[in-house]
Design brief:
The complex is a heterodimer of chains A (173) and B (333).
Chain A (H helix, E strand, L loop, with lengths): L4 E8 L2 E8 L4 H8 L18 E4 L2 E4 L12 E3 L12 H8 L9 H16 L17 H7 L10 H13 L4
Parallel strand pairs in A: 1-5
Antiparallel strand pairs in A: 1-2, 3-4, 3-5
Helix pairs in contact in A: 2-5
Chain B lengths: L4 E4 L3 H8 L6 E4 L5 H6 L7 E4 L8 E3 L5 E4 L4 H6 L1 H6 L1 H8 L4 H6 L2 H6 L5 H4 L41 H7 L3 E5 L5 E4 L22 E7 L7 E7 L10 E10 L2 E10 L6 E2 L1 H7 L6 H12 L10 H18 L7
Parallel strand pairs in B: 1-3, 2-3
Antiparallel strand pairs in B: 4-5, 5-8, 6-7, 6-8, 9-10, 10-11, 11-12
The chains are: A alpha+beta (173), B alpha+beta (333).
């Protein structure tokens, strides 16, 4: 069965980790079960909820629909990598001050997704609701559409939108 | 998930060679958004997984004839945001942005989108009968929950639909698919890439063993058309289509000079509405003309217990999309 095991190295939050894993292991399971980075959550495990969202080379992906081995040599960032020296990322701060969660299970995915979403917005990436004559402001319609890959079963969407807006405007810190 | 051997390739000849190795079945792995899910469910059980994400095919480039070539590894998010696509083939950008979520579009590739399999519940459920998953086992969708299922081009073997939004746009835009394989390179018109179910619903497309999609070409003749993608679904975002319509129109001297119409969510493949197009070419653009064309297209539609609503929905969505393009009152939502 040696074919099915692989020695790989994953670069997560700036640190390189050597792993021997079954090639079936998803990036999500590698993070949680092999690297004890349990901030990234397993919700549906089929790409429908967004709880497992992480950043790869700055872009948001669903870590459940991957093989970890595919992501060798890529820059992976998880919720654990957003704070620096004990100081929360502005998006984390904003989620706290705006009550952007209730149970908190979807929150790491929401925050990672929102960080990448704002970067996309700043680069002029369009969405399904963007029109040539759209307002240059990030409307609620835009926010809903751009964050639709992250479900919140508690329904904390109002707080989530307020938190993202606050982080975007840099008013949280 | 069954155990498999994983190989990573960096040139497409190696990918083809690996796919021809005796370790069948082999699968090419790109974004993984469909294949990994199907492997986890036991629907796909490859012995060999060939990771093609590092092939140098993630490029969008202009062609000498004025068309555009989209490499098979171009991810959906990059395709939809690319300035040349937005300017010259806006229908493709709209359709891609209406599919999946931002996270999935960052993973899913152009080639992989063509290869995605149906989302029929009975195909996914290995305890159910499904001729697509297990030929000859029957089709539980025929008498089951078939609200999402096909109304056009289906067979007594399979009433599954093709789930892609991107492919609806590619059908409307007369794209061609560039393929390389053990017998050499070939080009397949988009309309001939996917198949209707007939007696062999287990075969989704016309790729042969070992063949790899290398790129998709968009012809200059489809550039710059005024276009709209209208998707009707159970929630406003991040859901598969009940019905979708990709439409493009060019009107001159009060008559329709070019019309492209394709439907999603209604058939086993992206449905190019050639009957409606024929009825509209040269006609004066009116709501009545659009309605007559939609009626003609849907005339052969066959409903099942729970999806008869799709026939009226498809007609109305066609009329709404074309009316919006023609600037006729009532076209906008």
């Amino acid at each position: 069965m040696s074919d099915e095991f692989a020695h790989i190295s994953l670069r997560v939050n700036g640190a390189i980790h050597a792993l021997t894993i079954d090639s079936r292991v998803s990036l999500l399971d590698a993070l949680r079960d092999h690297l004890s980075l349990t901030g990234t959550k397993k919700g549906c495990n089929q790409g429908a909820c967004g709880a497992c969202t992480v950043l790869v080379d700055g872009e948001r992906i669903n870590s459940c629909l991957t093989l970890a081995i595919q992501y060798e040599d890529r820059e992976i960032q998880t919720i654990e990598g957003l704070a620096h020296d004990g100081i929360l990322h502005p998006m984390q701060d904003a989620f706290i001050t705006r009550d952007g969660f209730q149970c908190g299970y979807c929150t790491p995915g929401q925050i990672c997704s929102a960080v990448a979403m704002l970067a996309e917005w700043k680069e002029g990436v369009p969405s399904a609701v963007t029109r040539p004559d759209s307002s240059p402001q990030l409307s609620d319609d835009e926010l809903r559409e751009r964050m639709s890959g992250n479900l919140c079963r508690c329904g904390a969407y109002v707080g989530i939108r307020q938190a993202i807006r606050e982080a975007m405007e840099g008013t949280s810190r | 998930m069954n155990a498999f051997q994983y190989v990573r390739v960096t040139d497409h000849q190696s990918a083809i060679d690996a796919a021809m190795s005796p370790a069948a079945p082999a699968r090419f792995l790109a974004g993984g958004t469909n294949l990994i899910d199907l492997m986890r469910e036991g629907v796909e059980q490859p012995r060999l997984v060939i990771d093609i994400t590092r092939l140098p095919l993630a490029v969008i480039e202009g062609r000498p004839d004025g068309g555009v070539r989209v490499g098979a590894m171009v991810r959906n998010s990059h395709l939809a945001a690319h300035p040349v696509i937005r300017e010259r083939f806006p229908l493709l950008s709209y359709a891609v942005l209406n599919g999946a979520s931002a996270q999935l579009r960052n993973m899913a590739t152009t080639g992989g989108n063509l290869m995605q399999r149906t989302r029929c519940y009975y195909f996914y459920d290995t305890a159910a009968h499904c001729n697509k998953r297990e030929p000859g086992s029957g089709c539980d969708a025929l008498d089951g929950f078939n609200r999402m299922h096909a109304i056009l081009g289906a067979s007594s073997q399979c009433i599954a639909t093709h789930p892609s939004d991107m492919c609806v746009a590619l059908a409307a835009l007369d794209a061609t698919v560039n393929i390389d394989g053990p017998m050499g390179a070939r080009v397949v018109p988009f309309a001939d890439f996917h198949r209707l179910p007939g007696e062999t619903p287990d075969i989704d497309h016309n790729l042969r063993r070992g063949e790899l999609i290398t790129s998709v070409d968009l012809p200059a003749s489809s550039a710059g058309l005024s276009s709209v993608y209208r998707k009707v679904r159970d929630r406003a975002s991040y859901a598969f289509a009940l019905v979708s319509v990709g439409a493009a129109l060019r009107i001159a001297d009060g008559k329709i000079r070019d019309v492209r119409l394709a439907l999603g969510g209604v058939a086993h493949k992206p449905w190019r509405a050639v009957v409606a197009e024929r009825a509209l070419l040269g006609a004066v653009p009116t709501r009545d003309a659009f309605a007559r064309a939609a009626d003609a297209e849907l005339q052969p539609a066959v409903p099942y217990a729970h999806n008869a609503f799709k026939i009226a929905l498809a007609k109305r969505t066609i009329v709404a999309a074309l009316s919006e393009l023609a600037g006729i009152d009532g076209g906008a939502e």
